[in-house]
Amino acid sequence: MAMAMSDSGASRLRRQLESGGFEARLYVKQLSQQSDGDRDLQEHRQRIQALAEETAQNLKRNVYQNYRQFIETAREISYLESEMYQLSHLLTEQKSSLESIPLTLLPAAAAAGAAAASGGEEGVGGAGGRDHLRGQAGFFSTPGGASRDASGPGEEGKQRTLTTLLEKVEGCRHLLETPGQYLVYNGDLVEYDADHMAQLQRVHGFLMNDCLLVATWLPQRRGMYRYNALYSLDGLAVVNVKDNPPMKDMFKLLMFPESRIFQAENAKIKREWLEVLEETKRALSEKRRREQEEAAAPRGPPQVTSKATNPFEDDEEEEPAVPEVEEENVDLSMEWIQELPEDLDVCIAQRDFEGAVDLLDKLNHYLEDKPSPPPVKELRAKVEERVRQLTEVLVFELSPDRSLRGGPKATRRAVSQLIRLGQCTKACELFLRNRAAAVHTAIRQLRIEGATLLYIHKLCHVFFTSLLETAREFEIDFAGTDSGCYSAFVVWARSAMGMFVDAFSKQVFDSKESLSTAAECVKVAKEHCQQLGDIGLDLTFIIHALLVKDIQGALHSYKEIIIEATKHRNSEEMWRRMNLMTPEALGKLKEEMKSCGVSNFEQYTGDDCWVNLSYTVVAFTKQTMGFLEEALKLYFPELHMVLLESLVEIILVAVQHVDYSLRCEQDPEKKAFIRQNASFLYETVLPVVEKRFEEGVGKPAKQLQDLRNASRLIRVNPESTTSVV
């Protein structure tokens, strides 16, 4: 029964969550109002979690089932495609057989040639079918809209065919002036962008015996083309692009420093393009080699002087013939080398960066001690193009435009592969730029809370944790590399510290916080900065150098506040004893003076709740010692003179007031009270200030000693009207 109720409740909850008008906020509000307590909410939360897990399992099951169906469908398509290829091949053979039957019935070869010539002119003039050259007798047509020159016509026929074809291409009349040039193959292609694989334009390729002409379609003029580019076969490399839908039936042409990708109509035409390109390149290379050999051959037979007919020739003067060193051939016929460019393309497309770099390392190791004949140079040119593409992808992986989630470890994959490719400096620069953007984003996302100290705690935690993680990841990634990378990291750390100090100062110093709050914030920042010492990175001096100006301004501002407050109290000074009224207030004052370092304050207390000191002197003592304690929290060597001069200025205000009152007061009783306050100031307060300053700084202050020694004039000659200052 309980199980049935649970199932019905789960189904009702599922229907409620799947409804089109479901609103999470309204649902939670109603649930909170209807629940009896925390237990109901916990149970409801468990039901939602169970429903989420069930939904996730169903989703995984459906994805797996669809994936299996997709694989089976792809396999069936592959089988169907192979059968279609076989059927196309059979039809092509049947067509060739049927076309060869009338040729056997012709009475003479001359008549056959004349018929072929007339048929060629008629075929070129017509525009029927997808390829405008199919009716030409000097060509045999393929189902993909491509034509290949048959072996029947002679050189004159080939030249005439080329002339007729090129009349359909605007802007290439200069090609007709090249002697011995003829058409080998032509066909329609579609060009794609090499970087983004977006379709660009329809083109028509004309392969001559020494070059490749690419022409674009003219949509408004059917059967006409416009000249686009001409590439010599000597500097042209052809690369087969493996089928990886939607990248299908494609091949790439590499012409330093550019590359172009073309798509054929089907796999058969693509195979024909690849074969005829390679054959034509081989034929051209063989022709050039023969021409070079003929040019280097001697004009006449060499004159050989026989040793028998020259008895005066000395054997020792005879120079031995130097054998010709044949260039060592490098075996590039292995399957993994032949498929290396295509495998690199696949690895880059599938983001298998490690696999791509492993293939490059394997090739470099294989060719390490081998010569560089033309086939090796051609292979290296193909590989260099892939290396450039791989580097661009890795650079994009480390760009700040990518997601910055995952921390420094998320960059390790791209950085390590760039280092393996020999791009250590670029990897270092991109890694640090990525981490700078991550730190900047993390600081900007911090919410500015009402309490400054709370915000500073969060800011320090976020920044120094990121800096520590970046330093550890940097040490892992760039271990064993050039030491210059570590210098770059130190420069980056200083720049990042500047970013942190900007946010820190804007919140602490620009908002005019109290000196005690500023001191606590600086103390928190120093403590976090010292944690970097665990990895051998000390940036304390950098944070001191960046904060010194702001701290100087804060000390100067608070010093002025104390001086103004002291002068205001001095103007209202009546030189009367303090009456704290209650023992609790007196006890509190004793504790405050004890915390200030005045341990003998008991001797200045009288009967009941009286204190034998002026309110002005007591307030000055507490304020001065408070300023000193907070300033020592901010202290570092660059602030020594600033702090010392501020203390002297504050103390001089009180000293001058006491000295002036002592000289001007005529009432003996008040004069004795003033002298008692002066004694407290010189003999108790100033030594405590001097001692605490020396403890906080680590060395005594001569200016404070001189100021305290000046009090001897008052004790020696209290009736003198000469100023002690």
Structural class, by secondary structure, is: alpha+beta
Which consecutive residue ranges, at least 5 long each, have pLDDT under 50? 1-5, 103-144, 302-326, 712-725
Specify Rg, calculated over alpha carbons: 47 Å
What is the percent of helical residues? Answer: 55-70%
Number of helices: 22
Average pLDDT number: 77
What is the beta-strand fraction?
A: 5-15%
Give a quick account of the main beta sheet: strands, pairing sense, barrel closure. Answer: 10 strands, mixed
Apparent shape = elongated
Roughly how many Å apart are the termini? 98 Å
Description:
The chain is elongated, with a radius of gyration of 47 Å. The longest helix has 68 residues, at 38-105. The strands form two sheets. Strands 1, 2, 3, 4, 5, 6, 7, 8, 9 and 10 form a ten-stranded mixed β-sheet that branches. Strands 11-12 form a two-stranded antiparallel ribbon. The N and C termini lie far apart (98 Å). With 725 residues, it is of the alpha+beta class. The chain is built from 22 helices and twelve strands. Helix 8 (340-349) runs parallel beside helix 10, helix 15 runs antiparallel to helix 16 and helix 18 (615-633) packs parallel to helix 20.
Summary tags:
725 residues; alpha+beta; two-stranded antiparallel sheet; 22 helices; 12 strands; 60% helix; disordered C terminus; Exocyst complex component 8; protein transport
What can be said about this structure in brief?
With 725 residues, the protein is of the alpha+beta class. It has 22 helices and twelve strands.
What is the strand and helix layout of this fold?
Layout: H1 2-18, H2 24-34, H3 38-105, H4 109-125, E1 139-141, E2 146-149, H5 155-166, E3 169-170, E4 183-192, E5 199-208, E6 211-217, E7 225-232, E8 237-241, E9 250-255, E10 258-263, H6 267-296, H7 335-338, H8 340-349, H9 353-366, H10 374-397, H11 412-420, H12 424-444, H13 452-477, H14 484-508, H15 515-530, H16 540-571, E11 578-579, H17 583-595, E12 610-611, H18 615-633, H19 640-664, H20 668-697, H21 702-709, H22 712-716
Parallel strand pairs: 3-7
Antiparallel strand pairs: 1-2, 2-4, 4-5, 4-10, 5-6, 6-7, 8-9, 9-10, 11-12
